[in-house]
Amino acid sequence: MDEVDWPWLQDLIDGNYADDEGDTADDGGADGDGDETESNAETDGSDGNADDADDEAVDESAGPPRADPSAKFLRDLIAGRPVFSHPSAEGGFRLRYGRARNHGFATGGVHPATMHLVDDFLATGTQIKTERPGKAHGVIPVDSIDGPTVKLANGDVRRIDDPEEALEIRNGVEKILDTGEYLVNYGEFVENNHPLAPASYVYEWWIQDMADAGADTQALEDDPRIDLEFPDADEALEWATEYDAPLHPQYTYLWHDISVETFCDLATTVADGCVENDSDGDGTLVIEYSESTAVALETIIIEHRQRPDEDRIEIDDWRPFARTLGCEPRQAVTDGAALDADGQDGVPSVELERTWSDGDLSERARTWGHETEGDNAIEAVNEVAPFEVRERAPTRIGNRMGRPEKSERRDLSPPVHTLFPIGEAGGAQRNVANAAKHAETMSDTPGVVEVQIGRNRCPDCETETFKNRCPECEARTKPDYRCPDCDQRIEPDEAGRVECGHCEREATCVENIDVDIHEEYRNALESVGERENAFEILKGVKGLSSNTKVPEPIEKGILRAKHDVSTFKDGTVRYDMTDLPVTSVRAAELDIDVGQLQALGYEEDMRGDPLTHEDQLVELKVQDIVLSDGAAEHMMQTADFIDDLLEQYYGLERFYEIDDRQELVGELVFGMAPHTSAATVGRVIGFTSAAVGYAHPYFHAAKRRNCDGDEDCVMLLMDGLLNFSTSFLPDQRGGKMDAPLVMSSRIDPSEIDDEAHNMDIVSQYPREFYLATLEQADPESVEIQMGEDTLGTDHEYTGFEHTHDTTDIAMGPDLSAYKTLGSMMDKMDAQLELSRKLESVDETDVAERVIEYHFLPDLIGNLRAFSRQETRCLDCGEKFRRMPLTGDCRECGGRVNLTVHKGSVNKYMQTAIQVADEYDCRDYTKQRLEVLEKALESIFENDKNKQSGIEDFM
Amino acid sequence: MPLEASARIVSELTSRGYNAEREAVTKLASADDPHATLERVVEELPADALVVQTDHVEAVLSATEADAKPTAGGQQSPATTENEDPSVSTGDRTADPTAVGGAAPVETGGSAGANRSVDPELRSLEIAGDMTGDSTGTGEYEDFVAVFRDRLEKLGSKLRGRVNHRPATAIQKMPGGGEVGMVGLVNDIRSTASGHWLIELEDATGTFPWLVMKDREYADLVEELLCDEVLAMEGTLADDSGIAFVDSMYFPDVPRTHKPSTADRHVQAALISDVHVGSQEFMHDAWNAFADWLHTAEAQHVEYLLIAGDMVEGVGVYPNQDEELDVVDIYEQYEVFNEYLKQVPGDIEIVMIPGNHDAVRLAEPQPGFDENLREIMSAHDSRIVSNPSTVTLEGVSVLMYHGVSLDEVIAELPEEKASYDDPHKAMFHLLKKRHVAPQFGGHTRLAPEEEDYLVMEEVPDIFHTGHVHKLGFGKYHNVLAINSGCWQSQTDFQKSVNIDPDAGFAPIVDLDTLDVTVQKFS
């Protein structure tokens, strides 16, 4: 095992693999005497070279098919966001092909048990940066794939396929030997134009192998006594031998991860073992405990129990394992009734016989390998096993956490209830109530504040006002443009331009006027019939940024504040969610009933059966969306606000009347992505506890989003129609973005981003596909039906089939640990702790990267900033490029201080040193920290008056 | 060197009825034990002396040093104590080269070929402005303010005599139309809409704006200005007295009449920098050739070697530097550097300051290396001092500064006034400003100490920098400015920005004439 153990990986990443080999040789030789050292070093060196050369040759000709590792995704690792697997590392995510129903584009399926076991760092919607096929994926929970395999503190090695079980055993996990499977759909490879990576041997492939071998798979599938996907060991063996098909994937272990040598040793150990309690055929194989055996079993991730104290390892369901090793149960034992008596005496009832010797292996099997000769035992397995065994997990996908998922209300900072300007009078909080009482000096009238505001004029009675309605006659007012030079009134021309023909200057309607905020505020409260205690605080804005500087009526703000919603710069109330795709749903998981689904036009389930039950899977209509719990809550508040607004301000009937969130189902919303100006209409279909916005992939694509952790917002349709106005939008480049200037009410699949068309919509990938992956073929060379194939046909909105189901679209933790952990330090501690637990992660490399990409840039940057910093007046906020020679503020005479302090420079110093030490980082890294520490000391400590710590007195 | 020390010495001398030369006080203050030295100086003073002169102090100091050397294990003393009388009076005697060569210890000895004078009495090497171990700043706001005030104080004193100056606040209150002068730090330089220049000067009381009209002769000087340098201006107040029109502008500058000191004998110093040991681009062959040359007769007069920073390539100077390092371990880099240093004849005096690649703080002034690194570089008993420091070799003062600010001068000034091709011209500007790194907040980093160590209070005879890896030298008002090249061939980075370094050159200065010859080793 040592040859294929960890250290090679980092060397491979660093590109000095060959160098390190030389070093190892030297190290090894140093133990022996001089002569031997030399000869060893020489032979090892030349062997190493030969190996390298051979490797290349093997790669070209006969080695196992492997995708090249890529460490790109590890760049710019951030403290607190853990690595789940190093590039193509053993123990990392095993690539499984398929599309779950909550899969679309730029998503990756992870088993919910894995999500819990990686200390909850993964949740539905968490973005991960991946090694392949693309750069990033949104994580979705899929429980129809293999879960993780863990080693518990009691020595048990177990595969965990149940999220509940994962939570139960989580505290006892000593090592996560394997993070389980990672589901990626074929379309992902097409979209990224990535050659197909060799597929894991999985049920979907095996069943087609069976059919190809001549088995009547339909009959097997229909047999209620047989669980085809998780069969008994005996059944699996029987099929393998009877049909000459490869061994069932559930009994195919990761033989390719152990070396031929280890494989031979394992066969010997197993042959020396015995079987206990096999009277009814499901006994336990007991073999002698040794560290290397334990490591080998952990590597091939077979479930077993290690009992080093009793010097034994126990394996249940051992027959496929033993047979794969070429060990046959001894003939005399299996059919000799007389020997049962021995069994009762405590003597093993079944013994194993190794049917082959090391010498029987062919040259090819002995030298089969990827990195080094003979590091892959799969060929040896196939020579000794009485059936074919395929590679269980030839492709591992490295990944690390990117952004956490998001489901949050969109608030400006500070939040704004009303787009009404109050200048500085409201204080830092922009509190309108405070502004209404504010007076600059004793002689000022409280509440009268000078603000920049648009001047409007009533076309009927010529009254000047800043309001939309004339206070005298209720007529709709118009902006009153005047030339700043000659004060002449200018009417906008057809193009909307207002230029004074006389002075050739642009006219403006903006002026500084004294607004009596107090009066406006009181009038507004009165007009909507609310009292000040209806809300906690009403926040306005400092100034308006639009061209005509039209203020919003304060009344709207009062009602928003009352319902605790805040407005975006365009007057709408928004809620942000991470986008995730889903193509079919169950009423049960959406917290709705069948009746509600039927009311929305869902009549039959995926198979065409009438819809009668909450568990039936229905195909999602393309404009239906699922709200997160938080979004639903926020939408209900918005609906209440809209209702109050209609009734108390506009004098109309209430529209939504929502008491229960179930009543939101069927309501229309706007979905809108940042940097766009088109809203897409969606319809609420249900709710999920995951902190994401699930919707049809075509809906996301219509908003010009993909799902690799992107987020965008929803707003209630009536809010968008009532409260949005272009006159609020900032008069600057980009000001018109992020506002629903246009709306598309119907999605035409041909008009959306092609990315969404690269989604496969079949229920099974053909056997040819799996075989093509072994050739690492171009994805385009395989025929699988995609979304684009149905465009323009009657089926363009339907027929989105999937290959994998999942119990619930919200499994695993609801929130990533990244969001629940408090400080950056807590997050980083958890990240490093997890890296120790994961077999697939090199914790030293993680620590190095955290220091390299997070701590060092922070330290160096802050130190640089310190020695060339600006200073700022603590009293008036005036900034100075350099410390004033007067010492005090030149503007106000106030106290001036540094903007970068010692504390902000060295806050991470000790932590970084500690991490470097604890995780055994390279000397280079440690020395960089040392040099920096000395630099900090030199700058911040007085050479003649060293600060002494308490230990000096102990 | 702390100011109080000098002040104490002066008051101590005054109390005993002596006046003192400035230089003498400096030397006393920088002595290992100023108090004891002072006592000895007073003892040895001729009875009729009223003023303590530099020679008096030097005589005592060299006597003390000669006494102390054998115990300290210095490289030249074993030879000298055997062959020579260490008395002060033997200053003019020529040493017997063969005797010296033969008696020198193997690893430190001069080479027979060099015929180098090793008489310590002929040599003198004094350091001023070394702040190693005197970094008292703790990074507080007040420390920064103190540094800039000290700068104005020190450089302002060179200007106040030249203009009829008033504090900024007083000028603000003066009636319009009058003539006025001011000394201050440049706080801001702006061009106005009409193409004139507005320069804000700041002194300890406040700021005042000065307008340089674009058609005045001084307009051309504006583009030479850097923020935070000290200037004096004279001009006429505008009628509303909110601004003054500049009539003349003064820099602290080196006086045109400056007469540099020279050594009394023919002796040479090699001025190099930027060795960059540990880099894959370090030119060992060139260095070996240089070291070999120092052993030849041609180099017999080279008795001093000054290294202006970047001994090693360092660690973490730029991202992914480890991939381009020949020696990745920083301590090993210094060990290897030490090995290269050993090749230099043991009878050459070496002075080193750190640079931006070295393992000290980047902020200036940079203290000399810590004990650990000094230990590593101990083979050749070199003097390691802070960046910047002034080293006086037989009366010739050499201001050693690594030169990080040159990047800034070259970037800020128009190309014809400062460029990488003529690094000495950029140095001229620093001499004119009498400050090695005036501008704050830009490229150069500042660590606040109790005084501004970066000011050139005294005019040096030679100004020695490195950093930009270009060779260039010239004289500014008789001060010799030398920027040494480097010992590192073109790096990938330099290639990418089209910098062709001058690598493998050693400029040799005749200390008796301040003439420069350049030896090429690449």
Straight-line N-to-C gap of chain B: 39 Å
> Uncertain runs of chain A with pLDDT below 50, 5 residues or more?
1-9, 15-61, 332-348
Oligomer description: heterodimer
Poorly predicted spans of chain B: 68-110
* Biggest sheet statistics of chain A: 9 strands, antiparallel
Give a count of the beta strands of chain B, DSSP E runs of length 2 or more. 19
What would your notes on this structure say?
The complex is a heterodimer of chains A (954) and B (522). By secondary structure, chain A is α+β, with helices and mostly antiparallel strands. In chain A, 31% of the residues lie in helices and 16% in strands. In chain A, the strands form nine sheets. A nine-stranded antiparallel β-sheet of chain A has the order 8-6-7-12-13-11-10-15-14. Chain A has an eight-stranded mixed β-sheet with strand order 1-17-4-5-3-9-2-16. In chain A, a hairpin with a 4-residue loop joins strand 12 and strand 13 (312-315). In chain A, helix 27 runs parallel beside helix 30. The longest helix of chain A has 27 residues, at 34-60. Chain B folds into three domains: 3-128, no CATH class; 159-250, OB fold (Dihydrolipoamide Acetyltransferase, E2P) (Beta Barrel); 268-520, Purple Acid Phosphatase, chain A, domain 2. Chain B is built from 15 helices and 19 strands. Chain B has helices at 3-15, 22-30, 34-44, 54-72, 77-83, 97-103, 141-156, 168-173, 219-222, 284-294, 330-342, 371-376, 404-412, 423-433, 492-496, and strands spanning 19-20, 51-52, 125-128, 179-191, 197-203, 206-212, 230-237, 244-250, 268-272, 302-308, 349-353, 383-384, 389-393, 396-400, 462-465, 472-476, 479-483, 505-510, 516-520. Chain B has a six-stranded mixed β-sheet. In chain B, helix 1 packs across helix 2 (22-30). The longest helix of chain B has 19 residues, at 54-72. Residues 68-110 of chain B have low confidence and may be disordered.
